[in-house]
Each structure stands twice: as C-alpha cells, then as structure tokens.
Automatic annotation (TrEMBL), chain B:
<dbReference type="InterPro" id="IPR003439">
    <property type="entry name" value="ABC_transporter-like_ATP-bd"/>
</dbReference>
<keyword id="KW-0997">Cell inner membrane</keyword>
<keyword id="KW-0614">Plasmid</keyword>
<feature type="domain" description="ABC transporter">
    <location>
        <begin position="11"/>
        <end position="258"/>
    </location>
</feature>
<dbReference type="InterPro" id="IPR027417">
    <property type="entry name" value="P-loop_NTPase"/>
</dbReference>
Automatic annotation (TrEMBL), chain C:
<keyword id="KW-0614">Plasmid</keyword>
<feature type="transmembrane region" description="Helical">
    <location>
        <begin position="223"/>
        <end position="249"/>
    </location>
</feature>
<dbReference type="InterPro" id="IPR000515">
    <property type="entry name" value="MetI-like"/>
</dbReference>
<dbReference type="Pfam" id="PF00528">
    <property type="entry name" value="BPD_transp_1"/>
</dbReference>
<keyword id="KW-0653">Protein transport</keyword>
UniProtKB/TrEMBL annotation, chain D:
<keyword id="KW-0813">Transport</keyword>
<dbReference type="InterPro" id="IPR003439">
    <property type="entry name" value="ABC_transporter-like_ATP-bd"/>
</dbReference>
<dbReference type="InterPro" id="IPR050319">
    <property type="entry name" value="ABC_transp_ATP-bind"/>
</dbReference>
<dbReference type="InterPro" id="IPR003593">
    <property type="entry name" value="AAA+_ATPase"/>
</dbReference>
<keyword id="KW-0378">Hydrolase</keyword>
From TrEMBL, chain E:
<keyword id="KW-1133">Transmembrane helix</keyword>
<keyword id="KW-0472">Membrane</keyword>
<keyword id="KW-0812">Transmembrane</keyword>
<feature type="transmembrane region" description="Helical">
    <location>
        <begin position="24"/>
        <end position="45"/>
    </location>
</feature>
<feature type="transmembrane region" description="Helical">
    <location>
        <begin position="324"/>
        <end position="345"/>
    </location>
</feature>
Length: 506, 282, 303, 255, 353
C-alpha cells in the first residue's frame, strides 16, 4: 500500500520532454507543471469555461477590448524564497513569446511576436501587469490562454542566476523547477520516477499530500496490477480492457475527462478520387461509430460526428451517420467508382488509433476500397501533404470552439508553399468553404457571447454539410483509474489536474 | 623365467559387437589368448579388431559396444563380473594402456607432471609432495634429462618422443602387471622410435610385467615381441613365436610378409594379398 | 505383400552398392531419415515443423472462419465451440488467424534463410579463404554489425525501410548474418588447407569454384543448423517488430503480432496472447530440437 | 633433357620476425621416367619441397624448371596440369560430399576437356577400380581404394610428373603393396616421372632410382638405389634411417 | 645415440612483453575503427528513420515557423556530413551532446540508466551461468538418457518462450496473486531517495551506504526480471556447454584418463571442464553482451528504467544523440568484454600463452 500522506501515480512518461513550461507540449508534463507553477488565471476543473483568479487577484478589460490590466496577488513567494512580483509575470510571458517554441502559439495566435511583445506586455508597478492585444479578440480567449500551462509564472531572479549563454534559463528549467505552485520538484529521473514535495509556504492552502510520486510504468497491465494491489493510487494510461476490469473490480473509479480534440480521418484533397465529395461522404458511412464506441473507444472517446466539441458553445449531438456499407457503395457508384479503388492509409500503431484504423480498413474492404494500412511514424509526411489517407487525433487545450475550428476549418491559403502546416485543414489540402472560414474568424473577434454561440452553431452545421475532408468520429477523452480512497483528484480538460486538492480518506 | 607360462591374463571366446543402422557389426569374434609376463604382439590390418580387443580387456569399449566372453580373467580378477568401481581400481594400477599419439592422448591444459602425479595420488593415496617426488623419479627413469623443468611443461611444449616417454611414465608409475600399448610408436620418427621402445623394453624387463603390443608393423613386432598374435577380420588366425614369424603358415600371415618391400630381399613386384572368405570363418 | 515390398525397398535404399546417382541420393536421404527416427527429440521437432508446413498449405481447409472478418459485437469472447480459441479485440476468430498465421511464420522463416545463408556464407567464406586484407576488412565489417545491439539494429532498419513484412525480414536478416559469416569463416578456415581443396587448386580451380563447389557443401550443414536454431529468435523478433507496427501489416495474421497486440488484453483475454505464444513456443522449440538433432546426425564430428 | 631441375630452392613461412626458413638450399635434377625419393624425419621440409614444385606454395626463391620450362610463381593452367600431387592421407584428400565421379570430372571441367564420361571410366580402369564406383562417396571406399581414386584424379589430366607425398604411409601393408605395384605399372605405361616422399627406406628402395636424404631443410646426401641396398651410404643419418626401417634393435642386447 | 630434447622454450620475457604491447596497440586501432564504423552506420540509419526529431520536440500541432526555428536550433539545417563531423569532434572531447527527449546531457542519462541494466544483466548472467553450465554438462554426460532430454527441453523452453508473456505471467502470479514479489521498478516508494550513491547501481550503493533495508528491497525487485532473463541466458549457455562437453568427451585424452583409473566425475569436472573453460568464458561473455542489449522487453514489462528502454524510446523519437551515445556505449562494452575474455583466454589456455 502507499503511504497515507503520499500520492503515487502511475504514468507512461516516455513522451515527456523536459519541464520548461515554455517548451513542453505534452499531457503528463503539463500536469506536473500545473502543480509546480501557477498562472494568472485558473480554470476550475468542474467549470472549465469560467476564468477565476489565480496569481491575478483581479483584472479589468478596457472598453475597446484591447487592454487587459491584471492586479498581481502579493505575498506570494517562489520555491526559491524569492517574492513573486509583476516583473516576474512580465518576464515570463515575454519569454514564452520570445523563445517561440511549440506552446508559444498560446500567445502568438493573438498577434504577439518577439518584436512587439516588449511593448505589449508590461509591468507598470510591482503588482500590476498590463497586456495589450494587437486586435480585438473575445476576452475569454485571452483569459483561457493565460490559464494555460505555458503561461506559468517563472522565478525570473532565479533564472537570471541560472542563465547560460543567454538561454533565459532553458537548460536549467528542463530538469528543475522555478515556480510558486503547491509542489516543488525534488527528484526527477527520466522514464523512471518523479518526486514532488509539498510547498510549505503555498499561499492558497497547505497541500494534504506531503509528497507526490510519479512512477513510470509503461505497460497498462503493470499499472493495473499495481493499482489493484494498492501500490499506486492512480493509473493514468490504462487500456480499455484494463479500465473495464478495474471498474468492475470495484477498487477504483474510472474518471473520464473529456478533451477538446478529435479522432479524425484526413483525406488528401490533392488526390483526385478523394477530392470527390461523394467519396468523402462514403467514408463517413464506413466508420463503425457504435461498434467502436462500445468496445475499443469505450474509454478513449465519446462519439461526436460534428466539429464543435461537446460541452462547448454551439455543440450539437447530431449523429446523422452510422456504419452503412450499402450506402457507401451507392455513393461510390455515384461518384464513378463502383468497383472501389485502393489507397495507402497511414496510421500510428498505438491504442486506440490503430484499432480504429483496422476497423475502417475492414469496413472499407467490404465496400471495395482496398486500404493498405501502414503503421509507423508518418506525421512528417502528413505535415508535408505527402499522403493519401491519414488518421490520428488532436488535443486542443483552449476550452473554446475556436481552437478546434481554427485548425479543422480554416485554411486561408491552400497553396503548397503557404506552409500553414500548423493547420490540419491545410495539411489535408482542403479548400475550406469560404463561409465557414469567415464565420470562424468572426466568432473569434466577437465579444458578444450570444452572437458567438450562434455563429458556432452555424459553423457546426455548415461543416457537417460540406462533406469535409477531415472527418471526425470521436471526441477525445482521457481516462484514469483512481482508487476509491483518493478524494479531490479531478481530471482537468486542459491538462491542469491539481494535486493540492487531493486527500486520502478511509 | 618360470612365470612366463603363468598367464596374467586369459581370455576365452571373447566377442565384441557394435550395433549400427544396418545391423550389429561383430568387430571381434570368439578370440582366445593368454598373456604371461612376456611381450605379446597383436598385428593385423586396419579394422581387424586390434584396438577393440585392447579396450575390451580394460573394459573401456564405447558405451554402445557389447562384449561377451566365456572367460576374461586378469590375475585373480574376473573382468567380466567386475563392477565399474573394481575396474577403476584396476585401471592404471594393475593394467595400463599407452595410446598412439601423445599429442592427443595427453590433456592439453594440464602440465605433464600433474597428469603423471594424478595417477599415483589416485591409486596410492599419497600427498602431493610425495607424488611429485615419485613423478620426478619416474621421469628420470624414462631418460628425461631435466625432470624438474619438464614437470611443469604443457603437452604442446614437448616433442613427440618425449610425449610418448611421459605417457609411459604415467602408465608405469603405479607398477602395473600388464600394459596394453596400442601402436605406441606409429606417430614417431624411426630414430625416436628406437629410443622409446628401448626404454619401454627396459622397464618391462626390469619389473617383469606383461605387455600387449598392438601394431601393424611386422618388422617391428618381429624384432620387439616374444610372441605374435595375428588377427584378421576380428578373429585370431594364427599365434606364434616372434622369431618364427618368417615361417608362418597361415596364408594371411604369409601374404602380409610377401607384401612387404624389403631392403634385404628386394623384389621387383610385391605380392598382393588375395583374401579368402574362409579366413574370416575358421 | 506390403511388408515384403517395404523390405525390398529398405534393402535397396540401405545398400551402398549404387547403380545410379539417384540411388546414391536416395540412400543419403534414407540414412538421414533413419537416424532422425532414431532420435526421439529431433523427430518430435521434425513432426512439428512438418505439421507447420502442412497447416500453412492447408490453411483454407483447416480454418473455420474468415481470418480477417471483423465483428465488433463478438470482440474478446473466450474459447467456445464456435470459436475454438476465442476471438480477438475485433471479434476475429483466433483459431483461423492462427492457422493462416502459420503461412506468415513460414514465409518469414524461409525468407530470412534465403537472404541470410548466401550473404553470410559469401562474406565469411571469402574472408576465410582469401585471408589477408580481404579477411581483415570483411571481418571488421562483421564485427561492427556484431557489436550493434541487435534488436536496435533491427528496429532502426525496419523503421528506416518502412513498415511491411519483407522489410522487417530484411532488417532481421541484417542482424542474423554476422554470426553466420563468422561461422562460415571459421568453417572455411578448417577446410581451406584440406588436401582436397589443395588438390583442386593444383588443378587450376579458381576462387569461385572452390568456394561454391567445395566449401559450400561442407559449410552448408552447420549454417543450416545454426539458422534452424536461430529461427525462434527470428520469429520472436518479427513479433516484436510487428507489435511496433513495423512487421506484418494488418489485417495479415502473424503469430508474433497477434501475441504482441494481445498483450494489452493479457489479464482478461488470456487466450489472445497465450494461443499464438504457445504456437511460437512450440514451433521454435521444434526448430531448436530439429536443429540440435540435425547437428548430431549430420556433423560427423558428433558421431 | 631433364624433367625437373631445381637449384638453390629456399622456402620460408611467415614474414617479419617470425620468419621460418624451412627449406634452406636445395638443388637436384630429375630425368624423365626417373623416380626421385625424398626421406627425412618429420618436419624436415619434404612436403614443403613438393609444395613449391607443385605450385601450392608461393614464397620460394631459387629456380625451378619443369620440362625445360622455367616456372614462375604464377602458373598457367597448362603448367599446373603438367604435374599433379597425391597426398598422404586418403581420408582427407577426397571431398567427403562429392561422389567419385564428380571428383574426377572436376579437373576436366576446369580445363574444358571433352569426352568426360569416357575419360573418367578409362582412368578408373587404369587404377583398377570398377566404373560403378563413380556413384560412391569416399566414405564408402576403403583406404586403398581412396588412394586409387586420388591417383586417378591426378592422372586424369595426363600429367608428366606425379608428386607423391607419402602415398602409402596411411595404408596397411597389403594395400601398400597394391598401390606400389600400381605406381610402378603406371610409371611404365605412361612414362611418368615421380618424386616420392616417404619415411620408409624399404619403400624408397623399392620404387626410387635415387633418393635425397633431408635433414633440417637441406639435403645431407643423395644416394642411388644400389647404394641403399648395399648399405653403402656416406652419412650417419642415412644409416640410422636404414637401420630404423629394419625394425627394433634391442639396446640391451647390444650393450 | 643422442636424442635432442626439443621443448618449446618460447620467446624471452622481453620480446613477449613487446609482442603483448604490439597486440594491445593493434587491438586499440581495431577498436577505434569498429567504433567509428558503428557510429557511421548509426548515423546513416538514424537519418533514414522517418521519425522527425523536430516534431518529436515541438509536437504535431506546431506551425511551420516554430518548426523552422527549432529545426535550425537543432542544427539540422547543416549537411549531414557536417553534423557527423561536429558530433565526432564533440565525442572526441567526451561530449555526447544533449538528448532531445530527456533534455539531459546524454552522458549523464547513460550514467543513470546503464547501471540499472548492468545490475540486471549481471545478475541474470550469474544466474544463467550457474544453472546453465552444470545443466549442460550433466546432459552431455548423460547424453541420450531422460536426464538429457529433460534438461534440454527445460533449456530450450527458456529459449523459445516470448519474454514479455513470461514476464507478465510472473507478475500476475507472483505479484498480483500471491504478493511474493514487489511489482515493478527498482525500489518501493518508501525506499525511494534513501540512497543516492556514487555508482547508480542501487544494490552496490545500498551496500556501500549500509542501508540493508534498501538493499533487501532492491534485491527483491531485481529478482524476478533477473530470473526470467537468467532463464533465457541459461538456455543458450546450457546448450553450448553441452556441445562443448560432448566434444571433449570424444577426445583421446579422456580415454587416457579412464585408462589411468579416473572415474567419470573426475574426468568431467577435472579434465574436460578445464579444457572448455575458455570456451565457456567466451560464451558467458557473449551471453552477457546479448543480455545488455536484449533487456528491452523485460525492462518494459517490469518498468525497469534501464538502457534498453532508453535506447528504444530514443530511437522512436529520432533522438540521435541519445541513440549514438547508447550504441557507442554498448559497442564499447561488448568490445571490452570480448577483449577481456580474449586476455583471460591467453591466461587460461597454456597453448595460447
Ligand atoms: N564405436 C564403434 N561403432 C561401430 N563400429 C566400430 C566402433 N569402433 C570400432 N568399430 C569397428 O570395429 C572394427 C575393429 O576396429 P578396431 O578399431 O579395433 O580396429 P584396429 O584393428 O584397431 O584398426 P586400426 O589398425 O585401424 O587401428 C572395425 O571394423 C570398426 O569399424
Ligand atoms: N604453412 C606453414 N606455415 C608455417 N610453417 C609451416 C607451414 N607448413 C609447414 N611449416 C613448417 O615447416 C616445417 C617443414 O614442414 P613439412 O611439412 O615440409 O615437413 P615434412 O618433412 O613434410 O614432415 P612430415 O614428415 O611430418 O610430413 C615444419 O616445421 C612445419 O612446422
Ligand atoms: Mg586401432
Ligand atoms: Mg609431409
């Protein structure tokens, strides 16, 4: 059994890439950073769309919607003992933009660049930070971004000491922490173990768990057995059968945290056959939504055929498609391919993506489409539009339809050399209908929440009708098994699960 | 020598069979002979069963071989009925065996001294020190000049002739009463052979023991042994005094003699042995 | 009557007084066969390998379901009268996949042998026969491949070559040839100065003739035996690669990939990994026993 | 005209510090149809001389002439075919997995000669083996039969010279007699020139016209057959060898 | 009559030392070329692997600008040979670069993961050798009897069982069902962080620190994976020892020993074993090298943070520095082990002295 005052979590850490909040880009690392650091704004796990005060006690938005003024909480100190001031906030946010690494999109997408950030983000005194946006955006989008792990506030004084060759402390931060969160990093051995100790001077509350231990257990069966034996409290990467077994075993609860991303199928529109809308539609009838939902996808996803993630404004539960081979055949015949065709199909050989792909392969075969399924790492080819059919999943972190739609439904320039490879619509070479793109852009700038909700509902319908080249089937969920005596461990849709709220009861 | 006629070994109707894929092969068939304190040569062509006979006496035939005999007696011991433990006490102490090629018949990773001393330690239960003394003395006895040095050599570091002398000392150190030498000099040069044989000859005379000398060299057996047994196809076709070999009567023996080129009686053409089926049956 | 006929045949085969080349060959095979029967473990291995071949050939007759037909409603069912070895995560019949998988397994084994034996032999024998700098260069290359972590080499190459069973086989072959080359070299060294090779040289035979007409027949048994003994690790490596998406591609049934992908269901659907696992175990055990037996039988030094 | 002329032949193995001079300075000439013997104890360099003559060894110096032709280190197929070698060990000199027929066909293939089956049958007849032996493998033959096959293989290219390296020392006396007779017959019939290595003086005296006694890489004496038979040898070492081949001389008796 | 007593006096001590030195010098050259070849191949293969190291760092969804920026930062815009030359230059200064995945210097990563694998492989080799060699010898001595058959089948099963399957079954039975062994990893959470020693091998460190509780815990953790690996190694070792022993028992000197009156036991364990110890040493060394890189699967099943896992994940994320560093390490180790066994060989076998 685990010690009473310690939380032991089983994880698969093999894809973790350092602990620098401005560099990492991955779920497990994000959860750790969420607890080592704090951000201006907090999004409660149970009401994810509602910005709450974090390090910022309060804030105001100027009437033109472009200037945000944050009042920084005083009396907060970093793990190093340095007091946290507005200067640290200014330095941290600028650092994110200037380093320009993967998570910098969180600010860059609103128009911040390494050129303008020094003038747009400023600490006016020790407790006030002023942030200006180059354009008017819906303020929630900005607040959500400031709640992301990437906008964590770093200890600028400490990092100044640790700086090497002007790296803004990057090397140091990979394996150390410079935060003010409820836990401080004690030991980290990559692909082995991470130990975090409770931070005594944490301002909000005293964490009940004196220590949190994350163990790298790559095998699902290993995690499950340890969980059932009580040697770990939480298992985070279980296969669906193991989840089912744990659930029926009664020692732990299964927590399904919905995420804002989809399992998708991408049909390259540079391919003549796949560019045919009827062929695209035919593929929708080849996905065994219900069969998968009850088996492979039971814990990994929620059936969602539309494009706005469930739980967000404009979402709909319309499900007009279901597995229908005959219908698919008919569509193919109408498109001029009664005898089908064959295509190369790339998918990553990981659960459940590969199972979903194999299911599609089997159904397609019945409709006469021969899919040559190739496992392996093909993301590079997908990004360069060098594929025929590809499937994977995304994980957007903003609790707002904009994040998903910007990637799935905008493609301002469909030319090869535009290199908008951040957008999966561009990668698919899909010339998204203009009205959809316009509505998505308008909604992001719209400050009136009702109009916005309306716009998203329309986009949702238009997307469905467009017979998209990016077909969504399941909305991603992340399932964890939590032993019954663990209270307060609540999965967070934007990867910010907290440990300081956890307690162990009998 | 009165006890020359008192046999130390007597074998009656011994046969040895090997099972093979195409039925059992009888390598030795119903042979009988006695050995006293004398030098008995066994000659015969390759495959006639000489080595098999020698090994059967020591009960060292391959595991799959089947040995049957009416009687096999060595001094007071019944070799047929002796247990494996009895045999171990006999081998090396009372009957010894010298093999053809010292290059292969010595353990390559043990010093020669160690290998000789092992025999006395095993049979006489004496200490290492004492065994070493005995070994050195024995080495000296076989005309090895610097026994102290040779004691610590490995087999690959000694010449063929020396190797065979080491083999002799190893097999004679426990004073056995019968020695079986299976072609002890065939791997040696003529010059060395003479020396090795004379050492063996001396030791045998000195200790008054019996020797079974297996060879296919007629000239050698004739000049070295007292009696000769001639084998053909697993049978003994003839037994005679060595000095009378030239007057052998059996056509096989005669054939062998005629086939030999000779310095003293040069012939233009050699006689070729014409085998007769009856030889193998008689 | 029949026994009489068999006796005659036996006598004709066992007789060493040949009247034709064909009889000589048949005799050789027959003697091998007799020694095989006489060695119970090797014979057991032979029977299993023969069964594997038979199953592979007769797969369509033996299978009672379509091996690639999915039925998600029937996923992960335990063994029953309908599905003898249960069903997998897609509701496919494990028994039928096992039967068809024999083909893949056999295919891999044969392909690896076909690639590795000639390459390993050519490199090893050339190095051993020619000696000198050729030997140094070739053996250095062999050493480099030998000191590579073998699974990593296979992984890297099959990742580089792209997924697919043939590519996986090539990648595996890359890890298998160095020991074969070493073996071929060692064997060649023992034969290089044999009198019959010298005799051929003195008659003017060239390097190629000596290597392929004289050395090959002598090295072949030990190389084949070594490959037979390697077969289990070849199958297991192919399995590992299959699990990583680099070996056999779905929906092709392959034992290794079946065992590996069933691994995540091991605790609840034991049959998924256990059935192909036991099949792999049996076949590699059989290959091993057969290889050991062949070595005992064919190598005169082991007589 | 001499068939073989060798002067100042020296052979060494291994280069550098480990260099070993095995044959130091050897000269002799052999007439056509003559049989020239070589005796000496193990390791004195007899086989090495033959190896250099046959073209098996390359690291020799001095001059070798065969059939009036000076031989260089690299030989043409014709030059190779002119002399063939028979080895000591009949068990090691035939390829264990080749049938006799294949062994005999091989030289014909190498030299691109025709009428192969006929030649094989003829040469088998020459060495006194039935034609049906073509289908056998070496392990199915006795030592003497194998040695006959080895001789047949050497003869099939119709060489002028046979180099015989202890051709009978692994054989029983009865078989040795057959082979020695065969060699004698062939020499007469085919007008062959032999160089015969043996350690048995009786064999040498039986077959050779002259013999070179070798010790430690040099010839200590070249004696004729008559000298051997009469015991008129000059060198003590030659005498030792002669005595040795008569059998065991008890030292006790001598003392 | 004089008989020349020829004995191999061998070269004098001085020349022997010189020859040994020469030998060392050539082997050093050989090692360097082998390692260089190893690096070249690894580099080339690494370049061929389709996984994109940049994407591995920035994630799938990053945009093109970020991609370009990181691409340059990682030095991938330079020609391959320049990258390789730079790498070689760094290696010459004992700098193995930084891992993209772990963000640590590769050298410090290796210093952490390698001892874990070493610990496992060493124990497994000890287990495999101490069971496999006697088993092989016994089955050689009893060739063809049921003892031989059983011993061979037991050994071969170890060679033919999928390791991941066996590993999971062992965990299931001995951990989950009977609770006899600890689950996975190297230590229980209670004992984490109690010893942070100089060698990174917990067993050794705990022993040095005198933390016997930790030592016991670590030993319990390593037991199951080491036994499973040891079983696999045992199969190989017992088969090889069997055939070596059979070979020896056919030798003429065995007959001599029997003729002296030695019993079977003395012949096998005193005479024959001494003749095969060099070969045994070689195969134990080979098995050890094999285990060092063959631990991938068992490390995954038992969540053992060792080199096998490190290397595979590096490979999958195209983390070239980590891959090169690990391959180099394994290469050096396997060359070193072979060299060592070569040297011992010289020492143990009088014929090669
Ligand atoms: N282990 C065995 N299995 C089968 N047959 C055997 C075995 N050992 C010997 N033989 C056969 O027994 C016969 C006699 O062999 P043996 O070795 O006694 O002959 P030998 O007279 O010593 O011959 P050589 O002079 O060649 O040493 C031969 O025909 C041989 O083939
Ligand atoms: N390839 C070789 N490399 C090094 N040394 C060699 C080689 N071949 C022969 N020798 C050495 O040359 C010497 C003469 O060898 P050779 O074979 O000519 O002797 P031989 O007179 O034929 O002896 P034997 O009667 O034993 O056949 C021996 O000391 C041998 O060790
Ligand atoms: Mg014999
Ligand atoms: Mg010679």
């Amino acid at each position: 059994a685990t010690p009473k005052d310690q939380l032991v979590v089983a994880m698969n850490m093999s894809s973790m890439r350092g602990l620098d909040p401005n560099e990492l880009n991955q779920l497990e690392a994000a959860e750790i950073v969420a607890n080592l650091y704090e951000r201006l704004i907090a999004l409660p796990a149970d009401d994810i769309t509602k910005p709450m005060p974090g390090l910022a006690e309060s804030w105001t938005v100027s009437p033109d919607g472009k200037t945000f003024t944050f009042k920084i909480r005083s009396g907060v100190s970093f793990h190093s003992g340095n007091p946290l001031t507005a200067k640290d906030v200014e330095w941290s946010l600028r650092r994110l933009v200037k380093l320009g690494l993967a998570p910098s999109v969180d600010l860059r997408q609103w128009g911040f660049t390494d050129k303008n950030v020094d003038s747009l983000i400023k600490a006016s005194d020790d407790t006030t930070v002023v942030l200006e946006t180059p354009e008017v955006w819906n303020p929630n989008l900005i607040f959500y971004s400031l709640a992301s792990f990437s906008t964590s506030i770093l200890d600028s004084k400490l990092l100044a000491e640790k700086e090497k060759n002007g790296d803004m402390g990057r090397e140091f931060l990979q394996t150390a922490d410079a935060g003010s969160g409820p836990y401080s990093l004690r030991t980290w051995r990559v692909n082995d173990l991470l130990i975090a100790d409770a931070f005594k001077d944490y301002w909000a509350r005293t964490p009940k768990m004196r220590r949190v231990i994350l163990r790298h257990i790559p095998e699902s069966s290993g995690q499950r057995l340890q969980l059932e034996a009580g040697d770990v409290d939480i298992a985070t990467r279980l296969s669906s059968t193991d989840l089912a077994a744990v659930q029926s075993g009664g020692k732990a609860d299964i927590q399904k945290t919905p995420g804002f991303g989809f399992y998708y199928l991408a049909l390259n529109q540079k391919d003549e056959i796949l560019a045919n809308p009827k062929v695209r539609e035919a593929f929708r009838y080849l996905i065994d939504y219900d069969g998968l939902a009850n088996t492979v996808m039971k814990y990994y996803g929620i059936k969602q055929e539309t494009i706005v993630p469930a739980g967000l404004p404009g979402a709909s539960d319309a499900a007009p498609y279901k597995l229908d081979i005959d219908k698919a055949k008919q569509l193919l015949a109408e498109a001029g391919y009664p005898d089908g065709f064959s295509k190369v199909y790339y998918a990553t050989p990981v659960t459940p993506e590969y199972e979903v792909a194999q299911s599609l392969q089997a159904n397609a075969a019945k409709a006469g489409i021969k899919l040559d399924l190739q496992g392996g790492d093909h993301i590079g080819k997908f990004r360069n539009r060098e594929f025929e059919i590809f499937s994977a999943r995304t994980g957007e972190r903003l609790p707002d339809p904009h994040a998903v739609l910007a990637s799935y439904a905008t493609n301002p320039n469909n030319a090869d050399d535009a290199k908008l490879s951040g957008l999966i619509a561009w990668r698919t070479a899909w010339d998204v209908p203009k009205d959809i793109q316009d509505m998505v852009t308008a909604a992001a700038h719209e400050t009136d929440q009702e109009k916005r909700d309306d716009l998203y509902a329309k986009v949702n319908q238009a997307y469905l009708k467009a017979s998209p080249a990016l077909i969504t089937s399941f909305q991603r969920t992340d399932a964890k098994a939590v032993r019954k005596d663990i209270k307060g461990y609540v999965g967070h849709s934007t990867w910010l699960t907290r440990w300081d709220t956890v307690s162990k009861g009998q | 020598m009165p006890d020359l006629f008192q046999p130390i070994l007597s074998v009656k109707n011994m046969s040895v069979q090997f099972p093979t894929l195409s039925g059992a092969v009888t390598a030795v068939k119903d042979i009988s002979f006695d050995v006293g304190r004398e030098k008995v040569g066994i000659i015969g062509e390759s495959g006639s069963g000489k080595s098999t006979t020698g090994r059967a006496i020591m009960r060292l035939q391959p595991a799959n071989a089947r040995v049957v005999a009416e009687e096999m007696r060595f001094e007071e011991v019944d070799l047929l009925g002796a247990s494996e433990a009895d045999m171990r006490a006999i081998r090396g102490r009372r009957i010894s065996m010298i093999l053809q090629d010292p290059k292969y018949s010595l353990n390559p990773v043990m010093t020669v001294g160690e290998q000789i001393a092992e025999t006395v330690i095993l049979h006489e239960r004496i200490g290492r020190r004492q065994a070493r003394q005995r070994t050195l003395a024995m080495l000296e006895r076989v005309h090895i000049r610097d026994p102290e040095r040779v004691f610590n050599l490995y087999p690959h570091e000694v010449s063929g002739g020396m190797g065979q002398r080491i083999m002799i000392s190893m097999m004679l150190i426990s004073s056995p009463s019968l020695i079986i030498a299976d072609e002890p000099t065939s791997a040696l040069d003529v010059t060395v052979r003479q020396h090795v044989l004379s050492i063996l000859d001396d030791l045998i005379a000195e200790r008054d023991i019996g020797l079974i000398f297996i060879s296919h060299d007629l000239n050698l057996v004739k000049s070295f042994c007292d009696r000769v047994i001639i084998m053909y196809a697993g049978r003994i076709v003839e037994t005679l005094e060595a000095c009378r070999l030239n007057h052998a009567t059996h056509p096989y023996t005669r054939g062998l003699l005629e086939a030999l080129p000779s310095l003293d009686h040069p012939k233009d053409r050699l006689q070729v042995l014409r085998r007769e089926a009856s030889w193998a049956e008689a | 009557m029949a026994t009489r006929y068999f006796n005659d045949l036996h006598n004709w085969l066992i007789n060493e007084d040949f009247s034709s080349m064909r009889q000589a060959r048949l005799h050789k095979a027959y003697v091998l066969w007799l020694s095989l029967i006489a060695n119970p473990l090797a014979f057991a291995g032979f029977v299993v390998v023969a069964a594997l071949i038979a199953i592979a050939v007769l797969a369509p007759l033996l299978a009672n379901h379509d091996p690639i037909l999915q039925d998600l409603t029937m996923a992960l069912r335990p063994p029953s009268a309908l599905h003898w070895f249960g069903t997998d995560e897609f509701g496919r019949d494990v028994y039928s996949r096992l039967v068809y998988g024999a083909r893949t397994t056999l295919y891999i084994s044969i392909l690896v042998t076909v690639i590795v034996a000639p390459i390993g032999f050519a490199i090893g024998a050339t190095a051993g026969y020619l000696g000198g700098w050729v030997d140094v260069v070739l053996m250095r290359i062999t050493d480099i491949f030998l000191s590579f972590p073998s699974l990593v080499l296979a992984l890297a190459f099959s990742a580089a070559l792209g997924p697919g069973i043939e590519n996986a086989v090539i990648a595996i072959a890359l890890t298998v040839w160095p020991p074969i080359a070493r073996l071929a070299r060692a064997e060649t060294l023992t034969f290089r100065s044999a009198d019959f090779v010298v005799a051929a040289e003195l008659q003017g035979a060239g390097v190629g003739r000596i290597l392929f007409r004289h050395i090959v027949p002598l090295c072949a048994p030990s190389i084949i035996i070594r490959l037979t003994l390697n077969m289990s690790s070849v199958i297991l490596t192919a399995a590992g690669l299959g699990f990583l998406g680099l070996g056999a591609q779905p929906p092709m049934p392959e034992w290794g990939a079946m065992a590996a992908s069933g691994r995540q269901y091991l605790l609840d659907a034991w049959w998924l990994t256990t059935v192909p696992g036991v099949a792999i175990l049996l076949v590699s055990l059989a290959f091993n026993l057969l290889g050991d037996g062949l070595r005992d039988i064919m190598d005169p030094r082991n007589a | 005209m001499t068939m073989i002329s060798v002067s100042n032949l020296a052979v060494s193995f291994d280069s550098g510090d480990a260099r070993k001079h095995v044959v130091k300075d050897v000269s002799f000439a052999v007439e056509p149809g003559e049989t020239f013997g070589l005796v000496g104890e193990s390791g004195c360099g007899k086989s090495t001389v033959l190896g250099a003559l046959a073209g098996r060894l390359k690291n020799w110096s001095g001059t070798i002439g065969v059939d009036g032709e000076a031989i260089s280190r690299k030989r043409s197929p014709q030059q190779l075919a002119k002399q063939q070698m028979v080895f000591q060990d009949p068990f090691g000199s035939l390829h264990p997995r080749h049938t006799i027929g294949r062994t005999l066909l091989e030289p014909l293939e190498i030299h691109g000669l025709g009428q192969r089956q006929e030649r094989v049958e003829a040469v088998l007849r020459d060495v006194g083996l039935p034609a049906s032996f073509r289908h056998r493998f070496p392990h199915q033959l006795s030592g003497g039969q194998r040695q006959r096959v080895a001789i047949a293989r050497a003869l099939i290219l119709r060489p002028r010279i046979l180099l015989l390296d202890e051709p009978t020392s692994a054989l029983d006396v009865s078989i040795q007699a057959e082979i020695l007779n065969l060699l004698k017959d062939l020499r007469e019939r085919e007008k062959l020139t032999y160089i015969l290595v043996s350690h048995d003086m009786a064999v040498i005296a039986h077959l050779c016209n002259r013999v070179a006694v070798m010790q430690d890489g040099v010839f200590v004496e070249i004696a004729t057959r008559e000298q051997l038979l009469k015991g008129q040898v000059a060198h003590a070492y030659t005498r030792t060898l002669l005595d040795g081949s008569r059998g065991y001389v008890p030292t006790r008796a001598r003392n | 009559m004089t008989i020349v007593q020829t004995t191999g006096t061998g070269p004098s001590r001085g020349t022997a030392a010189l020859a040994a030195l020469q030998k060392v010098a050539t082997s050093f050259g050989v090692i360097l070329t082998t390692l260089l070849g190893l690096l070249v191949i690894t580099f080339v293969v690494g370049r061929m692997v389709p996984a994109d190291p940049v994407i591995a760092v920035i994630g799938d969804q990053a945009d093109h600008e970020t991609y370009e920026r990181v691409y340059k930062q990682m030095g991938l815009d330079q020609p391959v040979y320049v990258q390789f030359a730079t790498y070689l230059g760094n290696v010459a200064h004992l700098d193995f670069g930084q891992s993209h995945v772990t963000k640590n210097p590769v050298a410090s990563d290796l210093a952490r993961v390698f001892p874990a694998t070493l610990e496992l492989a060493t124990l497994a080799t000890i287990i495999g050798a101490s069971l496999g060699i006697p088993l092989g010898i016994i089955s050689a001595v009893r060739k063809g009897t049921w003892v031989d058959h059983v011993a061979r089948i037991v050994g071969l099963l170890g060679h033919s069982t999928p390791i991941f399957w066996l590993g999971t079954i062992v965990i299931l039975v001995f951990y989950a069902k009977f609770g006899l062994i600890p689950g996975s990893g190297r230590l229980d959470v209670y004992n984490e962080g109690l010893v942070e020693g100089p060698t990174n091998s917990i067993l050794v460190d705990a022993m040095l620190a005198g933390e016997w509780e930790v030592f016991r815990d670590a030993l319990l953790h390593v037991a199951a994976p080491a036994l499973i690996l040891g079983y696999a190694a045992m199969a190989y070792l017992s088969r090889m020892s069997r055939s070596f022993m059979l070979e020896q028992l056919r030798q003429e000197y065995v007959l001599t020993a029997k003729a002296k009156g030695l019993g079977q036991r003395a012949i096998v364990w005193r005479h024959a074993l001494r003749n095969i110890r060099v070969q045994l040493l070689t195969i134990v060394a080979l098995a050890y090298c094999g285990l060092l890189d063959g631990t991938v699967l068992i490390e995954t099943v038992f969540a053992w943070p060792g080199l096998g896992q490190y290397l595979t994940s590096a490979l999958f994320f195209a983390d070239m520095n980590a891959v090169l560093g690990s391959v180099l390490l394994i290469g050096i180790i396997s060359i070193a082990i072979n060299l060592l066994s070569d040297l011992t060989y010289r020492f143990l076998d009088p014929r090669t002295r």
